[in-house]
Write a structure and sequence with these properties.
Blueprint (H helix, E strand, L loop, with lengths): L1 H24 L9 H4 L11 E6 L3 H17 L3 E7 L2 H11 L4 E4 L5 H11 L1 E7 L5 H9 L4 E6 L3 H8 L2 H9 L3 E4 L2 H9 L7 E3 L13 H13 L5 E8 L4 H14 L3 E7 L5 H10 L4 E3 L11 E3 L6 H7 L2 E4 L12 H5 L4 E3 L7 H10 L2 E3 L3 H13 L1 H17 L3 H12 L1
Parallel strand pairs: 1-2, 1-4, 2-3, 4-5, 5-6, 6-7, 8-9, 8-12, 9-11, 10-11, 12-13, 13-14
Helix pairs in contact: 3-4, 5-6, 6-8, 10-13, 11-16
Length: 422
């Protein structure tokens, strides 16, 4: 009965969902495209290879899945992968990361007919879901077809767990439909179990984001970026990565304070969502800063700010900066991935909202690899101190790097669980 009511409610919301897509398409036109895929109308995979379906809802999950996809392609070369997502930015990252080495489409909406249509055309042998993207009808349809489901890199914040408790009659059967949950941390595993996941269905594997490898081919790009950005004055580079609406103003106010004390510094700001690029550019100019845009390959030497309005370059940006602020943390989004900065040995600054990355933040805090800033003045003072003090900056960055190195190995543990299910 709970799933029936959920399904009825979903169908009633469908006009609203479509209107929301159109509304988002005003700023990001790709939201108006490929609607048929969202209703399960995908190409029939008439393949002589068995199919593994991997779902990564958006950009963050796609980036986390890169190492996993590469490993699956190597280990299961006799299989074909289809990688799905829900957003245009996620789709762009999938295509950029994997090209035509995988099949790709949007995932179907969680309606019985759309899911059945998708499964009938794809016929996957296994479904791997990244992190927390769980849908009752999709899981029930896979169970009916004897398709095992693995939740990879599973995480469940306290906030999400409390929300799920209110609909536990819907959540418990859904969790019981999972073959395995590969949880990031003991706390995540416990929250899943408290919601009804059987103890035997959960294994703590760690966070596969720690298993990211810096591609040697990236070194040349990083060296060139560093040279271009620093210029003749060898100015310091402060990166603000994955910023959200409401954070850019904080970053710009802090940058004004930083420049008052350190004239020779470049801010590289990378908004999380492409539809905000122009808005952030206007904010920078309104604040009195000169800007260059990465998409225009404009000279950076005379600019106060470089707007990172390109796609797929953030990993290189982390390697080319001296100090990184990771966004989604001055607004109640819950933070974003800090491991990319840590892997480069770059000190990390954040705001106080880190509930989606609590365990990573705790690990970095324990060794002094991260500083959590309370407000504009705190962000400015911490930034100035670290940009001026190379010794402290290097010690903090090395501490962060050691955390990234010490916590690798989750990918191998996840692959062992996949081998048991496939």
């Amino acid at each position: 009965m709970p799933r029936f009511l959920y399904t009825a409610f979903f169908y009633c919301l469908l006009p609203v969902i479509c209107l929301r897509l159109l509304w988002r398409a005003v700023k990001s036109p790709n939201y108006a495209k490929r609607w048929a895929e969202r209703f399960g109308f995908v190409n029939d995979l008439d393949s002589n290879k068995e199919i593994i379906w991997l779902h990564a809802v958006s950009v963050g999950e796609t980036l986390a899945a890169v190492a996993l996809v590469n490993a699956l392609q190597e280990k299961y070369s006799d299989h074909r992968l289809i990688v799905t997502c829900m957003t245009p930015t996620g789709s762009e990252r999938i295509l950029a990361a994997f090209g035509d080495s995988v099949e790709h489409s949007y995932a179907p909406y969680d309606m019985p007919d759309a899911v059945a249509r998708f499964l009938g055309r794809v016929r996957p042998k296994l479904l791997i879901i990244m992190e927390t993207e769980l849908w009752p009808n999709t899981i029930a349809a896979c169970n009916k077809r004897d398709i095992p489901i693995i939740l990879a890199n599973g995480r469940l914040s306290e906030k999400s767990a409390r929300a799920y408790q209110h609909i536990n009659s819907l959540v418990r059967p859904m969790l019981n439909g999972l073959h395995t949950v590969a949880a990031q941390h003991n706390n995540d595993a416990q929250r899943f179990q408290n919601l009804g996941l059987p103890d035997t269905a959960v294994t703590v594997t760690g966070n596969i984001k720690f298993d990211l490898k810096i591609d040697p081919s990236l070194m040349g790009t990083v060296a060139q970026l560093s040279k271009d950005w620093r210029g003749a004055t060898q100015r310091k580079v402060f990166l603000a990565a994955s910023t959200h609406k409401g954070e850019d103003e904080i970053i710009l106010a802090a940058f004004a304070e930083i420049k008052a004390q350190l004239e020779s510094v470049l801010l590289v700001i990378v908004p999380r969502h492409p539809e905000r690029f122009n808005q952030v550019a206007n904010l920078c100019q309104s604040a009195g800063f000169s800007i260059a845009r990465r998409s225009e390959d404009a000279p950076v030497a005379e600019a106060d700010i470089l707007l990172g309005d390109s796609m797929g370059e953030l990993m290189a940006f982390f390697g080319a900066c001296d100090l990184a602020f990771v966004g989604g943390s001055f607004v109640p989004t819950g933070g974003h991935n800090m491991i990319e900065a840590a892997a480069w040995g770059v000190p990390v600054l954040t705001g106080p909202h880190l509930f989606n990355f609590t365990e990573i933040a705790n690990l970095l805090t324990e060794v002094g690899g991260i500083k959590v800033c309370r407000d504009v003045d705190d962000l400015a003072s911490q930034s100035v101190m670290l940009l001026q003090n190379e010794t402290q900056r290097m010690l903090m960055g090395e501490a962060a790097r050691q955390v990234a190195v010490a916590n690798r190995g989750a990918l191998d543990r996840l692959l062992a669980l996949i081998a048991q299910a496939i």
